[in-house]
């Protein structure tokens, strides 16, 4: 079944009690199933809400199906999903982390990893040889990649990474927040776990923080992840689960539209005299285009970046001049966002200083293109104007 169909109907959802075609919200913390007088029988999940809730269960079923996984778990944030995975590393374990991983994950892992006795090596996931060299056989438990990676939207070869991880006795986790299961299913290429910040495209309306993990196998390691979620109290709560399900119903359509618009914008920017480089795997000249074509299903996503022929100050000025794009961070919502990525990431950022990151939303492509052209033409006028004119 196509992702669009699974999503639109939430896996042919039918409320077992009401016959409703959308799930209801069940906020009860504790449950007393009829006929189950003996406390201690029945699953904890059906008794106490820190273990799960009916909305979370529906989202998990849909996500597992979309990703072709054995099971899924939804969390109160993408960061909580990450924590649940990291909580299962032990002192002495080693982790190979994408050098382009979401910058806060890098900071979290470096900060807490030391306390846990976990060591971390950063590696370029688009260069499998570097990953192979970073592996420590017998110690490396996890390889953590992002597809595509932020903010250059580079696409790692998931099949190659899975082979390297497995040869070294490790698992491969792919953060596919940006690709979404509509465009890429990492488990099909051999990954063991998929992570999503459901805050982004899965919900898609900029009004919810949520996370998800999907596993290829629901064995002992997965049970530990679920146990960690219960221990941390990080399951996605009922109201938030309902909101996520509501957002997910239109995911396929939103991703399709954002991908189409992003390609139009990338193509326009690529010929603009004020733009030095455009980073978008959908462009035929992009170094990651061929791999993206093989790994992605019918689109290249709504995220792109471009570097202007100018300074960080010029890039910031362009962000300020846009009138349709909203100047803010995050991604995957209905409104298009523009940001100077290096300022967002802070001092330790390795992001090119004149790089502008765009998250494409659902506005009309023409309005976004005209907005960028206006902002960029301001830059040319500034660059070309004699100093006296500018003062
Ligand atoms: N993964 C990626 C690629 C992200 O961009 C983010 C947040 O921006 C996260 C994970 C963390 O997710 P959350 O903010 O939902 O905790």
UniProtKB/TrEMBL annotation:
GO terms for molecular function: cystathionine gamma-lyase activity; cystathionine gamma-synthase activity; pyridoxal phosphate binding. Keywords: Pyridoxal phosphate. Belongs to the trans-sulfuration enzymes family. It comes from the Bacteria. GO terms for biological process: cysteine biosynthetic process via cystathionine; transsulfuration. Pfam families: Cys_Met_Meta_PP. This is Cystathionine gamma-synthase. InterPro entries: Cys/Met-Metab_PyrdxlP-dep_enz (IPR000277), Cys_met_metab_PP (IPR054542), PyrdxlP-dep_Trfase (IPR015424), PyrdxlP-dep_Trfase_major (IPR015421), PyrdxlP-dep_Trfase_small (IPR015422). Signal peptide: none annotated. One of its GO terms (cellular component) is cytoplasm. The modification N6-(pyridoxal phosphate)lysine is found at residue 200. Its cofactor is pyridoxal 5'-phosphate. It comes from Bosea vaviloviae.
């Amino acid at each position: 079944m196509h992702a669009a169909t699974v999503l639109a109907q939430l896996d042919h959802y039918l409320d077992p009690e009401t016959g409703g075609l959308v799930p209801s919200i069940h906020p009860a913390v504790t449950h007393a199933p009829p006929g189950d007088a003996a406390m201690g029988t029945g699953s904890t999940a059906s008794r106490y809400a820190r273990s799960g809730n009916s909305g979370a269960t529906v989202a998990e079923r849909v996500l597992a199906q979309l990703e072709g996984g054995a099971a899924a778990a939804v969390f109160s944030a993408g960061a909580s999903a990450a924590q649940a995975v990291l909580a299962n590393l032990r002192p002495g374990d080693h982790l190979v982390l994408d050098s382009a991983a979401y910058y806060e994950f890098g900071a979290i892992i470096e900060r807490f990893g030391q306390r846990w006795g976990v060591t971390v090596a950063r590696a370029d996931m688009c260069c499998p040889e570097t990953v192979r060299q970073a592996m420590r056989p017998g110690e490396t438990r996890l390889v953590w990649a992002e597809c595509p990676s932020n903010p250059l939207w580079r696409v790692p070869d998931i099949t190659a990474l899975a082979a390297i991880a497995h040869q070294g006795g490790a698992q491969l986790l792919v953060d596919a927040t940006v690709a979404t299961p509509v465009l890429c299913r990492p488990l099909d290429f051999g990954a063991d776990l998929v992570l999503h910040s459901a805050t982004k495209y899965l919900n898609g309306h900029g009004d919810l923080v949520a996370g998800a993990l999907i596993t290829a196998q629901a064995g002992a390691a997965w049970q530990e992840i679920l146990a960690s979620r219960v221990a941390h109290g990080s399951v996605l709560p009922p109201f938030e689960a309902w909101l996520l399900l509501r957002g997910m119903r239109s995911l396929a359509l939103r991703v399709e539209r954002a991908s189409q618009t992003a390609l139009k914008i990338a193509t326009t920017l690529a010929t603009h005299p004020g733009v030095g480089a455009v980073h978008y795997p959908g462009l035929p000249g992009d170094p990651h285009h061929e791999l993206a074509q093989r790994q992605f299903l019918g689109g290249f996503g709504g995220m792109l970046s471009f570097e202007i022929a100018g300074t960080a100050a010029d890039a910031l000025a362009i962000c300020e001049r846009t009138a349709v794009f909203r100047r803010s961070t995050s991604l995957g919502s209905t409104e298009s966002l523009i940001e100077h990525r290096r300022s967002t990431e802070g001092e330790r950022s390795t992001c090119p200083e004149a790089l502008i990151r765009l998250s494409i939303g659902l506005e009309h492509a023409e309005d976004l293109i005209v907005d960028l052209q206006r902002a960029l033409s301001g830059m040319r006028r500034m660059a070309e104007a004699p100093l006296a004119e500018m003062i």
